[in-house]
Amino acid sequence: MIVGILETYDNKPKPLPMKLPGLTENVIAGVIGQGGLGKSGLIHQIIMEASGFKNRLDFKGNQGILKTAYLPAEDPYQAIKHRLYHQLHSSGMTRDEIAVFAEYHHIDSLFDETPNIMDDHWIEYLHTYASIYDIIVIDTLRIFHRQNENDGSEMTQVVEAMKQIIKETKSSLVFVHHATKEASKNKDVADDQFACRGSSVIVDNSKWIMNLSPVSRVRYESEFNQLMKYENENNDYVSFKVTKKNFSKEDSTYLVKRVGSDIPDISGFHFERINYK
Fold first, then answer.
1. Among the CATH numbers 3.40.50.1980, 3.40.50.12780, 3.90.79.10, 3.40.50.300, which is that of 25-274?
2. What is the pLDDT of residue 237?
3. CA distances to 38, 170, 220, 274 from 254, in Å
4. Structure pTM?
């Protein structure tokens, strides 16, 4: 599509639509973090709230209520059910309110499937979601392809497949991915966009990257001084930050606390934002 120079000079463009802070439409995006931090639960909760669920994180864009889809392939079906049951029953929302939310949010467990975005069937399958939903999340990226993630050429093919999925749609495709071993061991690099495991091609072709990191008292004592009140609970705290945002100045670091379910026999949790400023 031709971009007219004089037409652009004469007409100020509208603000970019932001689905989440820094995340605009029709882009590839990623959520990166070490195992056990709760990155799957966090991004799921974020897009649930974007679809009208109870606001606990205050991490939204400028587009109102969005249609979102969560496609987990790593966690078992029953684990997803437990987490969702806790979320729904701890929200304080009525059944009627949840029914409205359910019109905007969709969950399709692919745990018993073998999704492969290099296969035409799966490209078409995911493109159908992209044609309907504003944000689709695939969790985790490793489960959705068979390529060598350390090989730049092979991961370029994966990136091209993701681009094909959202082609001619306004959807944004968010992948969940693991951090490198170094990032998992060194908290000082955990919130760097290149903490992503595998070839840098993945990050280079993503327009939005969010990193999760464990909270370090040494790193965050000056900012997150509230933590000093909860010394025995530091393992429940996680920070996240949008470390790559090509179309935004979003630069906030968010502190959240992981809250486990108190519902008998339910293994679920949610995150609550801690306002430290």
1. 3.40.50.300
2. 85
3. 14, 27, 12, 8
4. 0.92
